[in-house]
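Hello forum,

I keep getting stuck at the same step: I have a sequence, I want structure tokens, and every attempt I make locally crashes halfway through. Rather than fight my setup again tonight, could one of you with a working pipeline run this one for me? It's a single chain of 252 residues.
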Amino acid sequence: MKFEIFQPSDTLKPYIKQFVVSEMEDESEYKVLPSLGIVVGFQYKGSLAIIQESQASTLLSAGITGIVDSYKVFKNSPKIGTLLVFFTEIGLAHFTKHPANELFNLSIGLEYIFKKSLVDEIQDRLSSVQTDIQRVQIVEQFFITQLQHIQTDKLIVESVRMIYQSKGSIRVKELNERLNISASPFEKRFRKLVGISPKKFASIVRFNVVLNALGEAKSLSEICYENNFFDQAHFIKDFKQFTGETPDKMRH
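Reply #2:
Ran it on my machine without issues. Output:
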């Protein structure tokens, strides 16, 4: 298995966290847990399917996945090669007017967001080159040409920073007060740019903090109370929604 991380150029750094080139020799089925940020994927060889209710649906070879609030199961063909683009929390808004919240819980073809002729052209170019550097350059060039010079919504950037700083435990009411904005316009702006409501975003931040804490020598009740869960039953229910398993099972 290959998993190589590439940093974006300075032009794209505010909007794209990283590029990843991943290759797998064998067919495999795997679970992807909720994380933050929208992801674009290009399969330059092989194919990928999503498994829902025991049915496999093959995805288009250039696709985009919105933020999800539950785990997803994927299955790759043998000899698959994928280039992934991980956006910053509000990064996608700088390349398309498509509202990020319309991608919530979806994995769809990239041609729904960008012109099909442009997507086809990238795929042709990706299949004709041999090195990871060349692949990253092709995709970088595409996003540079799509970059829209719009003003960054500083209030939403600040709200995202505050949610991370609180490890997902800040209440939306407190965000509204500290940012001096009423609930409805704030939620609308946040959902359009980030892809989900601020409350759900905070719950996924908190889930990822919990996930990291499971690797430490802490009891479940310590993790539960450190992360401001009402009680252990609430903690386990939330965790199962995100992973399909109990925290104890994930530990082993």
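The radius of gyration is 19 Å. If your local run keeps crashing, start a new thread with the error log.
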